[in-house]
Amino acid sequence: MNSNKHSVVIVGFGGMGKYHAELIKMNNSLEVVGTYDVLEARRTDSIKVGYKVYESYEEVLADPAVEIVLIATPNDVHKEIAISALQAGKHVICEKPVAMSKEELLEMLAAADAAGRVFMVHQNRRWDEDFLTIKKMYDQETIGSLFQIESRVHGANGIPGDWRHVKAQGGGMLLDWGVHLLDQLLFMIDSKVTSVSSSLSFILGNDVDDGFEATLQFENGIKAIVEVGTTNFITLPRWYVKGIEGTGIIEDWSLTGRLVTRNHEGEKIEPKPIRAGVGLTKTMAPPSEGATITEALPQPAELGSSFYDNFAAVIEGTAEPIVKNAEVMRVQNLIEAIFESAEKNQVLKDFDMYGEGK
Ligand code: NAD
């Protein structure tokens, strides 16, 4: 083991646990020293790639060589694994969604406080370049100040895997993908959500949602539409944003997209009416030539440090966490408001977004 790196044991060596192992191999701050999984097959996978395999979770906690427990199990067991790790003096990286409820998250944060250990949630999609491109447009008003942000992910594969179908294990798409999209929005927009209107879809007949739509109104005037679908055989763009000077679109994760803005230098030529369907329209006719400018997307914003490097720096006391626990709590509160709005079929106006996360 390289003594300059902080030692990590991955608990839950499934899809995401293995992905963390791959990413950490390329990281200079952390090093995976072993894994623990309840399934024999996953232990065999771990031995094959050369990691030490712990036979029990107690063995992980009792090993003084382990500094960090990285939790990549299904969502219903995050809390118990995190709290025992913190109580054993380990720092914790926890997968999203951090917990099943606000109450669970409060218990986890109290355990981190009591132990004086670092607890950070892996909201890795803050580093997605498509999101960071929108964040740059938001921060720099590339198409004027944004007043509508539509963030969608569409798939056609239904809900993958096993536990994601099970409510008691924290399944469903609001918890799975919703938490990413909402985290991105709240990270970017520093304003209170004043109303939430949502609906969940149960097209596939599971007891958990296979998608949802939520409309959020922010105090600063921005409206956000967030949508996750798993039965979309034709997808809508990943991002569609409107600013007072133009419109932006990002089609997908490969950053295909463009901006179209008003051309202030252009000659003011009225658009010509067009035949549209069986009618005639000037309102919906394309802008006349020269009235708009099409541009490439700006370069993504930068967060300064990778998730793992930031985590190491927080342990070392040299940086603030990029994913702050108060922000994670806000997202948790918002998720609960979205569930409530859908269940009551109501626009929710007076929920406590900041709650304990101020
Ligand atoms: P998975 O089913 O592929 O893997 C989960 C593993 O945890 C399994 O190997 C299972 O045997 C093991 N496990 C279950 N209970 C355990 C326990 N008590 N102790 C030890 N091991 C246990 O699931 P996944 O897709 O890897 O998801 C795991 C977590 O990662 C979830 O919280 C999920 O939301 C999150 N995730 C995050 C991202 C991301 O981009 N941040 C992507 C995928 C999944």
TrEMBL record:
Domain Gfo/Idh/MocA-like oxidoreductase N-terminal positions: 8-122
Pfam families: GFO_IDH_MocA (PF01408), GFO_IDH_MocA_C3 (PF22725)
GO molecular function, one term: nucleotide binding
Annotated GFO/IDH/MocA-like oxidoreductase domain residues: 131-247
Parts forming coiled coils: none
Signal peptide coordinates: none
InterPro entries according to UniProt: Gfo/Idh/MocA-like_OxRdtase_N, Gfo/Idh/MocA_oxidoreduct, GFO_IDH_MocA-like_dom, NAD(P)-bd_dom_sf
Protein name (Swiss-Prot/TrEMBL): Dehydrogenase
The organism of origin for this protein: Paenibacillus etheri
